[in-house]
Design brief:
Blueprint: H1 3-33, H2 41-50, E1 75-84, E2 87-92, E3 97-101, E4 117-122, E5 129-135, H3 138-147
Parallel strand pairs: 3-5
Antiparallel strand pairs: 1-2, 1-4, 2-3, 4-5
Length: 157
């Protein structure tokens, strides 16, 4: 045998051992994935928990969030106080305190609490009022703060 044939045989042996190792890993995973779910709610919860993995190897997963679209006049705001009837007092990034209104389309979908970060659009004909377009979750807010997207005036987080 020549040296090139020896190298090829060693490569083939390495590939076969790697395949057997991967087969062993997959064979241990198959029984758990082929189990039929029972009718109890407990198995459904455990299956759901398995699907919520946060990336491979503990790496940070980047999430896309909507940012205010400046040409349309959208801006960041913080919910300050509630006044009832889907109206609230907001402090906008330009320093103006406005009365925010949650439109009917979003009333039941968007639950806003005090100190939530929002995207608002001031009214063109009455600058002291604004419509709420979007609400950020606390996780999204912390990510925006870490990336430096939130203006200094709203930096209460």
């Amino acid at each position: 045998m020549t040296s090139s044939e020896d190298e090829q045989s060693q490569v083939i042996q390495k590939e076969s051992t790697e395949e057997s190792e991967t087969k062993e890993v997959s064979s241990t995973e198959k029984p758990s994935s082929t189990k039929k779910p029972s009718s109890t709610g407990k198995s459904r919860k455990s299956r759901g928990a398995k699907s919520k993995k946060k990336g491979a190897g503990g790496e940070e997963v980047t999430l896309r969030v909507t940012l205010p679209y400046k040409p349309k006049g959208e801006m960041f705001a913080v919910a300050e106080t509630f006044q009832g009837g889907s109206r609230l007092q907001v402090i906008c990034e330009d320093g103006v305190r406005r009365m925010g209104r949650i439109p009917g389309k979003l009333r039941r979908r968007m639950w806003v609490r005090e100190n939530d970060l929002l995207i608002v659009v001031p009214w063109s004909f009455q600058d002291s009022k604004a419509d709420v377009k979007f609400r950020y979750t606390p996780t999204q807010t912390s990510n925006l703060k870490r990336r430096g997207k939130i203006p200094e005036i709203l930096d209460i987080y």
